[in-house]
Amino acid sequence: MAMTVLITGGAGYIGSHTVAALQEQGEQVVVLDNLVYGHPQAVSCPLVKQDLLDKQAVEAVFKQHHFDAVMHFAAYALAGESMQRPAKYFENNLLGGLNLLEAMRQNGVKHLIFSSTCALYGYPRQLPVTEEALQKPMSVYGESKLMLEKILAWYDQLFGIKSVCLRYFNAAGASLNGAIGEDHDPETHLVPIAIQAALGQRQEFQIFGDDYDTPDGSCIRDYVHVADLAAAHLQALAYLQAKNRSEAFNLGTGQGYSVKQVVAEVKKVSGVDFLVKTGPRRPGDPAAVWADNQKAKKVLGWSPQSSDLKTIVESAYHWHQKHPQGYE
User: Fold this and answer.
1) What is the pLDDT of residues 215-241, one digit of tens each?
2) Is 194 helix (H, G, I), strand (E, B) or coil?
3) Which burial class, exposed, middle or buried, applies to 298 when counting CB atoms under 10 A from its CB (0-12, 13-18, 19+)?
4) How far apart are CA 251 and CA 303, in angstroms?
5) Does some domain include residue 100?
6) pLDDT for the residue 1
7) Could you list the residue range(s) of the whole structural domain that residue 117 is in?
8) What are the percentages of helix, strand and coil residues in the chain, rounded to 5?
9) Which CATH number do you get for residue 157?
10) Do 306 and 312 touch, CB atoms closer than 8 A?
11) Number of C-beta neighbours around residue 284 at 10 A
């Protein structure tokens, strides 16, 4: 029998790809999104335009539907902005999460999958980063995710609401069928910014620092295809149903690509030799971060299928080529 899953922030980038994956599996999906950053064009399921900060509106959604599980994506996620506007991030990311948990508690919904982040590890002391690594966020954004993970642990202990926290590394790419992709305003992610330079929408691409202790001097990150992230949510849901046990997993590929490698791949895929300039380092950028994904492989049976750099860049480039103005 099909499940009914509530997805908060389901009109956003990773949320919309997960909606599509759930629908492909035959599940019923309801999206709750305030559309501040989400796009209604990205989802083909019932969409409730509401804000998680509106407690009564959240409760009303739970009264209208019987949910078997919740996937919680809705959060503000710009680390830089979170340092300038901490109240915005703590209010939205914590109070929104609490309102959701209270509605789940009152309506007997016991399974939650939480969109968490590798930002809660801050500057990792060892690579690759395991789930046991020291959690010391370097941004208000990362701190807000860590705080909600702690709240989830209490709701498990007190009310038996089981959760899986999925700590993403760098989400990238677009759906392999070309239907949905990444459309942020402002855009802060490396792959789409490089693609915008290739499409002539930016005059140049800037590398922030090329004097890091890495093979080519530019920062190294672990890029994981958004389709692989969506698949992990389905496997996490199956895990919760089978084991009914709270867990946390790193979602990454277990290796990193440098900024210069990504730029070279975008040039190769697009056939455009766009202008690249090197600027100073950004404060707060660690030289290299990549995941240890062995736990997700062993426990969830998850293994990234589409996260090679070529597939990531090609899928993203084709989507941006067809949607030069994003969803608009």
Assistant:
1) 999 999 999 999 999 999 999 999 999
2) helix
3) exposed
4) 9
5) yes
6) 84
7) 4-172+223-251
8) 40, 20, 40
9) 3.40.50.720
10) yes
11) 12
